[in-house]
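Local shape tokens

___
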Amino acid sequence: MENFENVTIKKAVNAYFDGKVTSRTITFANGEVKSLGVMLPGAYEFATADKEIMEILSGDLIVKLPDSDVWKGIKGGESFEVPANTSFQVKVAELTDYCCSYIKE
């Protein structure tokens, strides 16, 4: 899906890691929540409350998922899932555009 329709967008930015990772929260009419954001090059660790599906729209990173010692390459057009109540690490090689979906279980 290239466009989202009939959504509410929070105007305030979500900024992390001194502004090197930013996003905006989008809420759909059915209550589904996503964020659209950008990550600058660097290494980051994120904690999850809900299950997350991270879709990389453009860019290049490697991810280390919970309970894994392996770094996996992810680039534009690919995605990965992270279980709820865990954390994951990313190393971003170039400006990376992403869409994160939050799944309530």
